[in-house]
Amino acid sequence: MDRRKVLKNIGTGIGAFTFTPSLISLFQSCQQDSTLDLRTFSIDQYSFVTKLMDIIIPKTETPGAIELNLNRFIDSYIDEVWPEEIKNIFLLGLDKCSQIHLNSNSKNLELLLDKYLKVDKKIKDKYDDLISDYEEQIELGNKASIDQDIIEYIFIKKLRDITVMSFKIDEFVAKNLLVYTPIPGNYKGCVNLQEVTGGKAWAL
Amino acid sequence: MKTSYDAIVVGTGISGGWAAKELCEKGLKTLVLERGRMVKHIEDYPTANNDPWDYRTGDVITNETRKIQGKQSRTGYTTTESSKHFFVNDLEHPYNEISRFDWMRGYHVGGRSLTWGRQSYRLTDFDFEANKKDGIAVDWPIRYKELAPWYEYVEEYIGVSGKNVDRPEFPDGNYLKPMDLNCVEDHLQESISKNYNDRLLTIGRTAIITEGTKPGLGRVSCQYRQRCRRGCPYGAYFSSNSSTLPAAEKTGNMTLRPNSIVHEVIYDANKKRATGVRVIDTETKEVIEYSAKVIFLCASTVASTSILMQSKSDVFPNGMGNASDQLGRNIMDHHLGVGASAKTDNFQDKYYFGRRNNGIYVPRFRNIGGKTNRKDFLRGYGYQGGGSRGGSTSEASEVIYGSKFKEEILKPGTWKVRLSGFGEILPYQDNRMTLDFNKTDKWGLPTVTFNASIKENELNMRKDMQQQAIEMLEKAGFKNVKGHDGDYALGLGIHEMGTARMGHDVKTSVLNRNNQVHEVPNVYVTDGSAMTSAGNVNPSLTYMALTARAADHAVKELKKMNF
Predict the structure, then answer these.
(1) In this complex, do B350 and A193 lie within 8 Å of one another by their Cβ atoms?
(2) Helical H runs in B162-223?
């Protein structure tokens, strides 16, 4: 249960709203969970997102998205960075996907990812253009709407993008899995990839 | 504190820093006034060494920042967590928009010299002669040969890296070692040379030291960290804080006073001269008058023009030096956000070392005579941009998640290349800023209202800017070539200029050929407001050259006892 949502509901007060014992115990159980103190997701949403992120970037010989706490990171990132409208569309997409897949095993979750990430390139490009137009308008403070049929796609695509983004700017990843040079001291425009980084990308 | 000086300089940005340095070095006791807080070189660059993970959101602009710096965030790059402290709070410093106008400001010592794009180009006689030739607005009262030695002088002092190319539309300068092109840019350069007689691609000319040292506070060569906008601990790029202000300080002639909003130039109708300025101390709220023999307004285009507009008297009921009614009119910028981008599958085994905070430049190739002349628009544009190789994401459609995907995303992605146009905007009388004296800010000062837009000439030019970019990228054999033409509103180029233009005649311009207010010769305005036309190149270098030249003139006039 999302403690913040509960508190918000209490705050807005739906008329005669009293503290019944059951509500209080619910409240306490939330508080026990509050080490999480989620900002974007409900507990259910968070656990669904966690499962997907674990599939997108799993633990191998090196830590995966969940060991690196990237699920925590994106929970706070989305709340702090994304405009409200974009966050809401993302959460709508999440809820639509999780309705069917809340208790799915990882095989079925992989099928879910396949469904939206393996779409034909032309369709994908069309969707991506729609999304970027929409987001540009929102960021400019204008009103905009988006086709409801693609909100699952939006959720899956944006979840993967943000998982990748947060992975690459993670300190452990930057310093251990990518090549980190805070002060290069020099610039060379055209060098051999293998010789310079062993095929890895620069961290910065 | 003393209240009487030889000279007063208003503002500490690109122009103010230069005025301070030149006037102090020539022996004038100079009061330098800055409306914002003190920013000391290095000491006050708190984010200069931060990594993305030092921020909860990885150095991305947050909703909280967007709330208080909404207008400052319109560029999409100015208000990251690591640079937002060098841009103003829009709630504290409001302005009015009849049409959208993106006014990016930094109220602190150094101004926007800390956050500028550093691209440093000279105007040419194609620019200085353009208004006269086209019968547009008024003629520039100077020509290239008069400014060339001052370009030379400021380039030598600040350090500009770049390459000479021997083309009249892109004059050579006094350059430090050019930065490398990367392999994709090399390829595009070759392709453009092969396919076109009228154009070339070269490395950007940027005010970054690439060899040796330059005067100031220990200015040394670039370390290629690509963190310029946070302030450079090496002083590798030019800023007032690292270069001109320390030079002024060193003379012992400078008194620098931050937290001082100048809102009026005081005029003596008997002497027909300005006698000083009126200042609000932002900490004590006290109003103080300072006097001087000569005054340099270098507060930035909009701010210097606002000060003149507020300097009303019986002689100047519509603002100081405004007999022409041109004050606040003809506001220009460079229109941008149009061009093309592409990808290439080549050069997979190539990469770069270091982070070069500079791009490529394709100089203007339109309307410079003969076959280059166009019927559909006047003037021209240049391209900036370049090749880059970011991280890979979802390029490989087979691998979309899982352990293999995890390996893939640790490799560099495909090379991308982008050409982004910077176009000239004509001076239009009704593109203007005015003051709203009924809607005041927290100091009781009038707020600025903008009403300006690009018109047919610019819109026609944009079509060509997009088309030519697409064509050059296609001829180079790149794939996925895509044109773009984004939303542009004046100000987005952060090159606002022209609101107190130079000209021959007091009836049609505000400033004369030496940047003196026609009607008040001991007031010089040497920032962007002086620009008679915009040209198509980044303007800061021109402001520096104009300022150094005007300071030289002012000191000579003082010696002749003309002020």
Answers:
(1) yes
(2) 183-195
Q: What is the pLDDT of residue A79?
A: 97
- The Cα–Cα gap between B550 and B556 comes to 10
pLDDT in tens, B265-276: 999 999 999 999
From the list A58, A117, A193, the residue facing B406 with the nearest CB is A58
Closest by CA position to B444, among listed B329, B232, B556, B282:
B282
Query: What's phi and psi for A38, nearest 5 deg?
Result: -70, 145
Residue of A81, A186, A193 with shortest CB distance to B354: A186
Does residue A21 have a pLDDT over 60?
no
Q: Could you report the per-residue pLDDT of B506-548, keeping only the tens digit for each? A: 999 999 999 999 999 999 999 999 999 999 999 999 999 999 9
Confidence of residue A29 (pLDDT cuts 50, 70, 90): very low
Chain B residues near residue A160 by CB distance under 8 angstroms: 394, 400-401
Report chain A's mean pLDDT, rounded to a whole number. 84
**Cβ under 8 Å to A: B residues 356-415:** 356, 391-394, 397, 400-403, 405-406, 409-413
Pairing of strands B381-391, B360-362: antiparallel
Contact between chains at A187 and B61 (C-beta distance less than 8 A): no
The answer to whether B36 and B13 are in contact (CB under 8 A) is no
The helix, strand and coil proportions of chain A, stated in percent and rounded to the nearest 5, come to 65, 5, 30
ipTM of the complex: 0.92
Q: Is residue A182 less than 8 Å (CB to CB) from chain B?
A: yes
Mean pLDDT, residues B120-140 taken together: 98
Contact between B418 and B386 (Cβ < 8 Å): yes
| Residue B152, number of CB atoms within 10 A of its CB | 14
Six token digits for residue B123: 């105007």
Q: Measured between alpha carbons, how far is A85 from A93 in angstroms, rounded to an integer? A: 12
- Chain B residues in contact with A165 by the CB 8 A cut-off are 58
Burial of A13 (0-12, 13-18, 19+ CB in 10 A): exposed
Which of A58, A188, A196 lies closest to B402 in CB terms? A58
Residue B353, strand partner residues: A188
Average pLDDT, chain B: 97
Spatial contact of A191 and A202, defined as CB atoms under 8 Å apart: no
Structure tokens at A165: 């983004």
Q: Which residues of chain B make contact with A178, given a CB cutoff of 8 A? A: 410
Chain B residues with CB under 8 Å of A181 CB are 354
Where do we find the tokens 């300068």?
A: B173
Report the C-alpha gap between B108 and B110 in whole angstroms.
6
**Per-residue pLDDT averaged across B444-450, rounded?**
98
**Token pair listed for B539:** 């303007």
Nearest CA in chain A to B102: A140
Question: How far apart are the C-alpha atoms of B365 and B372, rounded to whole Å?
Answer: 7
Whether the pLDDT of residue B457 is over 70: the answer is: yes
Q: Are B154 and B545 in contact (CB under 8 A)?
A: yes
Summarize pLDDT for A177-200 with one digit per residue, the tens.
999 999 999 999 999 999 999 999
- Name chain A contacts of B403, Cβ cutoff 8 Å: 58, 60
Phi and psi for B450 in degrees, rounded to 5? -110, 140
Q: For residue B487, what pLDDT band results from cuts at 50, 70 and 90? A: confident
Return the number of CB contacts < 8 Å for A and B: 155
Chain B contact present for A196, CB below 8 A: yes
The answer to whether B183 contacts chain A (CB < 8 Å) is yes
